[in-house]
Structure formats: C-alpha cells, structure tokens
Write a structure and sequence with these properties.
By secondary structure, this protein is α/β, with parallel strands linked by helices. The protein has 14 helices and 5 strands.
C-alpha cells in the first residue's frame, strides 16, 4: 500500500491576511511542513499577482464577512478548481458563516485560534485531496490504454473471423477471388460519400464480408455450374440469403448481426421485385442497398463460371440504367461520382 504524505517539502502557497501578526504565525506554521507562504494584505494585491505565482494552495482569512473576499474565493474556485482554497474563520464562527464560505467552494476551514497540529493536519488532508484527481487521471489514462489495446486485439480477432467466414462461402468458387475485399471497399466508399461516420464505414466494411455466407449451403452443382441456372436452380440459389441470415442472426456480435441483415437483404431491389421478401425503397436497410450496388458491380466486372468480366464503363452504364429499379438512385449517384475511387479499388484488389 502506498504510504500517505507526511510532509509537503518544497511546496508554496498564497496567504490573504491583513493582520501582519497573524500572517507571521501562518508562515511559521507553513515552515514546519517545509512550505513557504507568500502573504498579501488585500484582495487586489493577491488577485494582481495570482498569475505570476506558482502556488499549490491558498489560505484566506475570512475573520470578518466580506463580499470582496467571498467573491475572490468564488472566482478562484471557478477558475482553478484543482487548487485547494482554505479559509480561516473568526473565533466562535456561527453555522451561517461556515455555510457561506463552504458554498463559496473552499476545501476546508480553520476556526481561530488555530493550533499548529490542526494546521498541519488540515493542510495535509487538503493537499492529499489535491493529488487524487491527478492520480485518478493517470490511472484512467493507463487503464484506457489497456482497454484500447484489449479492444483492439478483440476487434482484430473479430475482423479475422469475419474475413475467414466470408472466404468460407467462396472457398468452392475459384473464380470469385478477392470478391469480398472489393465489395467491402466499394461499400465503404459509398458509405463515406453518403457522409456516414467512421464507425458506420467500419461496420459495413467488415460486415459486408458475410453477404454470401449462406452459399455454404448451396450444392456445388448449382454454385459452380458453368452456365446460367434454370428456374429450379435459381430458387435454390436464392436461399443463400435466408441461409446466411439464419447462420448469423443469433450472434451477440454487432458485426455478425449487421452481416445477418446484409446477407438477408442484399438481393432486394429498389422497385420491390427482389428477394427474399420483396422489400422496396427505404424499407430495404441502407447497408443492404449499399452492398447490392457493390456486389452487382463486382459480379459484372469479374469473371464468373457463366461469363467473362465486363469492362468498367459497361458496368457503370448498367448501374445508371438500373437507377430506381434495381438500385437506390442516391447510392448509384454516389458510386458513379467517385469512379476514380472505384477504379482504384478494382485494380488494387484485382484477381490474377
């Protein structure tokens, strides 16, 4: 256990005391604790020199009720809340006077006659209390650093989990390559253009990796078919949305829950003709609408078992044509407004 402070060697304080004999007594008391007191006889002088003094505490004689002294104490407490202010009250001070000075914000008070033992005890207590905020602040900073490190480690592991889960859905499909990375970056790009904050951009970036997690349950004969699917196969393929939602919906992770929502809604269409629920317009969650744009664009511009990749310009044109039908018009405009950013992502995460 840390030992309590028993001396205050090297500290200095200010004394507001009009009586020179009382001021001398207070200085002597201070010297017994290794502290120095700089005395001032009136409020004007101490106020004028306050900024030039490096004081650890202030002693104020409040032997006679004075509005000037009370205002001075109130100002000090307001401007320097961590600076201990102690009052010296007259002998026989009543409860009203004590209440008045306490309301002004003093840390403690003496009642004359003041003995050396009482002076030392109250000063030690006041200066010890002053150290508490500093200690707490340092402790808080240290703990915040530890917490940030721990959270960072947890998030890193969660990000890895999200990525691995996302890759699991693509593991059987050799032609999807870096699909989830491109979709994640396209989605984050759109969210940023829309003005979503960094937290929201982070969530959609990592959660979008799970948009096709439900494909784990789709038979290879359908998932890897080197031709367009027939109606029955399309019906089975559509179940990857509800499958993905079912896999993720009971998680306590905000990323996995968001991933569940994206998995379920990223094939809804703005005009209501999508699946699995036929939602339309703003009834489709924003993240689902964003990933819809990102996912389709990437599907168009990369090789799939049933098609060759489209040129970027052709894919941009299709997005523009489908505004208000398959895609949210606002999101398409956002995506097209930063075609350079889209092209950068496309080339940085290209399949080789």
């Amino acid at each position: 256990m840390q030992r309590l402070i028993t001396t205050t060697t090297g500290l200095s304080g200010l004394l507001l005391e009009a009586d020179p004999n009382r001021a001398m007594a207070m200085r002597k008391y201070a010297l017994t604790m290794g502290t120095l007191l700089q005395g001032y006889a009136n409020v004007q002088d101490i106020s004028a020199n306050l900024k030039n003094e490096k004081a650890e505490f202030i002693l104020v004689d409040y032997s006679e009720s004075s509005s000037a002294v009370l205002d001075f104490v109130s100002d000090i407490v307001r401007l320097y809340p961590a600076l201990p202010v102690l009052a010296i009250l007259p002998e026989g001070a009543g409860e009203d006077l004590k209440e008045e000075i306490i309301r002004a914000g003093v840390w403690d008070f003496f009642v004359r006659p003041v003995g050396i033992k009482e002076y030392q005890m109250r000063m030690r207590n006041a200066l010890r209390m002053r150290q508490i905020p500093d200690t707490l602040a340092k402790d808080t900073v240290g703990r915040e650093s530890e917490i940030r490190d721990a959270i960072g480690e947890i998030l890193l592991r969660e990000y890895e989990t999200l990525y691995v889960l996302g890759k699991a859905a693509e593991y059987k499909d050799e032609d999807t390559g870096s699909h989830i990375l491109r979709v994640a970056n396209y989605a984050k790009l759109i969210a940023g253009i829309l003005g979503e904050n960094e937290t929201s951009q982070d969530v959609i970036y990592h959660s979008s990796a799970l948009h096709d997690i439900g494909k784990i349950g789709i038979p290879d004969s359908i998932l890897l078919k080197p031709a367009r699917l027939d109606d029955g196969e399309i019906t089975v393929m559509k179940t990857h949305t509800t499958n993905g939602h079912g896999i993720l919906e009971h998680s306590a992770s905000s990323y996995l829950l968001t991933g569940a929502m994206i998995a379920l809604t990223h094939h809804e269409r703005y005009d209501g003709s999508g699946y699995p629920m036929g939602l339309s317009g703003s009834d489709i969650p924003l993240y689902g609408r964003i990933v819809c744009v990102a996912d389709v664009f990437d599907a168009l511009t990369t090789k799939r078992p049933y098609k060759e990749p489209w040129p970027l310009d052709r894919a941009f044109s299709l997005l523009a044509e489908e505004r208000g039908r398959q895609f949210d018009p606002v999101l398409v405009e956002a995506f097209l407004s930063n075609s350079q950013g889209v092209e950068r992502i496309y080339h940085e995460h290209a399949d080789f």
